[in-house]
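Section 3.1: Structural characterization of target chains.
Under the original work plan, the team committed to producing a structural model for every single-chain target entering the pipeline before any wet-lab resources were allocated. The record below documents one such target. The sequence was received from the expression subgroup and is listed exactly as submitted; it comprises 82 residues.
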Amino acid sequence: IAEFGGGLLLAGSGVGLFDVPVQVPAFLMFLLVLAVTPANVYMFTHDAQMSDLPRIPYPWGHAGRGVAQCVLLAFFWTLATT
């Protein structure tokens, strides 16, 4: 729910739907991605798998998630600080 709400707020701010600077929802999304980073590090180091999702190949699947997370953090940080 938080990801969906943050994404809507970010997109709505970008197109002028909400009277909120884009930096605010971008920083909130940055904090949200940052908050789940320890869980993703744990999943990488322990090859943790979620039972209801397809298996992620170890180690490259988890490493790919880590790279995607770094890209998201950089993207949201850039939006939040410009």
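DSSP finds three helices and no strands in the chain.
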